[in-house]
Amino acid sequence: MSITISNTSARIQYTATSNQTQFTVPFEFFADADLLVVHTNAGGVDTTLSLASNPSSVSQYSVSGAGESGGGSITLGSGATAGDKYTIQRNLSLERTTDFPTSGTFPIETLNTELDKIVALLQQAEVKINLSPKASSSTSTAFGLTFPELVANKLLTVNSAGDGLEFSQEIGTFKGNWGASTSYVQRDIVKDTSTNNIFIALTSHTSSGSQPLTTNTDSAKWSLLVDAASATTSATNAASSATASANSATASANSATASANSATASANSATSAANSFDSFDDRYLGAKSSEPSTDNDGDALVTGALFFDTTANATKVWTGSAWQTVTVSASNQTNINTVAGISSNVTTVAGIASNVTSVAGVSSDVTTVAGIASNVTTVAADGTDIGNVAGSISNVNTVASNISNVNTVAGANSNISTVAGANSNISTVASNISGVNSFADRYRVASSDPSSSLDAGDLAFNTSSNVLKYYDGSAWQTITADTDVKTKVSANDTTAGFLNGKLVAGSNVTFTEGSDGGNETLTIAATDNSIPFAIALG
Question: Tens digit of pLDDT for each residue in 320-340?
Answer without folding.
Answer: 999 888 765 667 677 767 867
